Amino acid sequence: MCVLCTAIPASFSLGAVAEAKQNQARLEALANGETPPRRRPYWAVSLGAVVVVVTVSALYHAQGGG
Predict the structure, then answer these.
(1) Distance CA 20, CA 22 (A)
(2) What per-residue confidence (pLDDT) applies to 4?
(3) What is the pLDDT of residues 31-57, one digit of tens each?
(4) Is pLDDT at 66 greater than 70 in this prediction?
(5) CA of residue 57 relative to chain centroid, distance
(6) In Å, how far are 9, 12, 23, 28, 31 from 2, measured between CA atoms?
(7) C-alpha dihedral over 44, 50, 53, 56, to 10 degrees?
(8) Is the CB of residue 57 less than 8 Å from the CB of residue 1?
(9) Higher pLDDT, 53 or 66
(10) Cα separation of 10 and 23, whole Å?
(11) 7-39 per-position pLDDT tens digit
């Protein structure tokens, strides 16, 4: 598997981990009676990275590479 094709699931998993950590921090803050941290759009950044990597990978493989 080429580096670009490997980056697709890696981008998904990094986004999922970041989203899970954010949710955990929010739940802990709420349980302690603190103000929860601001939500950041990790899912959107991850999705954008996946779209870019899929596009680049498709163009690379269409050119005869890999």
Answers:
(1) 5
(2) 87
(3) 999 999 999 999 999 999 999 999 999
(4) no
(5) 17
(6) 12, 17, 33, 40, 44
(7) -80
(8) no
(9) 53
(10) 20
(11) 999 999 999 999 999 999 999 999 999 999 999
Q: How many CB atoms lie within 10 A of CB 18?
A: 15
Rounded Cα gap, residues 37 and 42, in angstroms: 14
One-letter amino acid at 28 equals E
CB 9 within 8 A of CB 55: no
In terms of phi and psi (left: phi > 0; alpha: psi -120 to 50; beta: otherwise), the region of 31 is: alpha
Length of the chain: 66
Using alpha carbons, list the distances in angstroms from residue 9 to 27, 30, 36. Answer: 27, 32, 30
Q: Return the domain boundaries, the chain.
A: 3-62
